[in-house]
Design goal:
The chain is α/β, with parallel strands linked by helices. It is 39% helix and 27% strand. The protein contains ten helices and 14 strands. The strands form two sheets. The protein has a ten-stranded mixed beta sheet with strand order 5-4-1-8-9-10-11-12-13-14, with helices on both faces. A four-stranded mixed beta sheet has the order 3-2-6-7. Strand 12 and strand 13 form a beta hairpin. Helix 1 packs across helix 8, helix 3 packs parallel to helix 4 and helix 4 packs parallel to helix 5. The termini are far apart. 46% of the residues are buried.
Length: 312
């Protein structure tokens, strides 16, 4: 696909190889190899919802070769930046139902030239697409947080609409550089940042949202699990609540919401429809195994089930 056809750039500070061991019966185990990482899950969700993302991330070593092959097999458009160090990964044991970590490797350090290449590639695709989704670092990532500040500055200068799914140091750095078009963050992340108490009521969440808007985020959506989401779009406040589906796997529901928010940004949806689509994508994701993998037809059926509880 030619680069000019992409309408969303997705920046991932790291991609991972995930190896999962599951019980196969007959005294044999099943071993599954998958892609992992927030940026990949978001990009996959965007494509499933019908838009055209391109994913940029550093890859290297033997895991990097596997990543290139796995991404190619999915047909997702990928613009990898070659690095010297090996891409990270983990091995999970799910033979007894729950995920148990058997092994994990840390993300490699990027030297100055690799960081510059990663930044240039991200900015190139962002300017071309007009919308850029920027995902946060893993705890193990050592990428300089100053890259987020530069993205804030240069996305604003180039007229790129930024969609951020990060918090903490990355959010602070980005807002030092420039305004953020849309921020998606969970109430759990805001609690880690000291902006919310555990189990905070709506009023406290609205106060945190107002603080983030005053700090430079033009639109803020806070996901709250089964309680849905609160969103401020300019001066409009909207609350959305999804149906209480049985949760098969909650992992990745936030990434599905971010993908839907990016799609809504591309399509210019109004606040209510934006939050409906985001909550529908998140709710559909928890009904299945596989992060960011809810099919578009299921998401479409869930959209009318999202309850909009008015505006403030």
């Amino acid at each position: 696909m030619p680069p000019e056809t992409h309408n969303v750039a997705v920046f991932a500070p790291s991609l991972l190889i995930t190896v999962t061991v599951e019980s196969g019966g007959d005294d044999y185990d099943e071993i599954h190899f998958h892609m992992g990482g927030q940026g990949y899950w978001v990009a996959r969700g965007i494509r499933e919802l019908g838009e055209r993302p391109i994913l940029t991330a550093p890859v290297g070593g033997e895991p990097g070769q596997v990543i290139r092959g796995l991404v190619a097999s999915t047909g997702l458009d990928f613009s990898p930046v070659q690095i010297a160090g090996p891409s990270p990964g983990y091995v999970h044991d799910r033979r007894h139902g729950e995920r148990r970590v058997l092994a994990t490797s840390r993300s490699p350090d990027l030297d100055r030239h690799e960081t510059d290449d990663l930044y240039a590639r991200t900015l190139q695709h962002s300017v071309t697409a007009g919308v850029c989704v920027i995902t946060g670092r893993r705890d193990e990532d050592r990428l300089s947080v100053d890259l987020y500040r530069r993205l804030g500055t240069d996305c604003a200068a180039a007229g790129v609409t930024s969609v951020g799914d990060f918090h903490g140091d990355e959010l602070t750095a980005f807002l030092e550089g420039g305004p953020l078009g849309l921020l998606k963050v969970s109430d759990e992340d805001l609690a880690r940042d000291g902006l919310l108490g555990e189990g905070a009521p709506d009023a406290e969440v609205w106060e945190a949202i107002d603080h983030l808007c005053d700090s430079g985020a033009r639109t803020v959506v806070v996901s709250r699990g089964r309680d849905g989401a609160l969103g401020r779009f300019g001066v409009r406040r909207v609350k959305a609540v999804p149906p209480a589906f049985e949760v098969v796997d909650p992992a990745g529901s936030g990434d599905s919401m971010t993908a839907a928010l990016a799609v809504a940004t591309v399509r210019g949806l109004d606040p209510e429809d934006t939050l409906r689509l985001a909550c529908a994508a998140g709710a559909a994701n928890v009904t299945r195994h596989g992060l960011g993998s809810a099919p578009v037809d299921l998401v479409a059926r869930v959209v009318p089930l999202i309850e909009i509880q008015g505006e403030e």
